[in-house]
Q: What sequence folds into this?
């Protein structure tokens, strides 16, 4: 689907919490900050492991989805608009925001 330059796409909202599964454990995505841009939807997720060798730990995942809602297995690249959009979205994710502060403090 082609969009006019600068036109914002709308992806289906993903429910939180929702399950995830990795080779080293599984659990729930408990918080998610996302911004939908013209090319993709950058996302920052707080993942809490409840089973497997990672049980009891948390992970922050930086990822993206395409406009059809499919997870993208490519590097996350964000422009200045995405930074502003993610910052706004992080206001609704207190635990994730607190953890990310540790990255820049």
A:
């Amino acid at each position: 689907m082609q969009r006019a330059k600068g036109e914002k796409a709308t992806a289906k909202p993903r429910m939180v919490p929702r399950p995830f599964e990795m080779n080293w454990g599984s659990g729930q995505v408990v918080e998610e900050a996302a911004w939908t841009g013209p090319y993709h939807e950058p996302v920052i997720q707080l993942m809490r492991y409840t089973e497997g060798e990672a049980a009891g730990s948390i992970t922050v995942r930086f990822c993206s989805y395409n406009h059809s809602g499919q997870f993208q297995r490519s590097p996350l690249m964000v422009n200045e608009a995405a930074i502003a959009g993610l910052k706004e979205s992080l206001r609704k994710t207190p635990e994730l925001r607190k953890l990310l502060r540790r990255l820049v403090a």
About this structure: The longest strand covers residues 41-51. The CA atoms of residues 9 and 36 lie 6 Å apart. The helical segments are 80-90, 94-104.
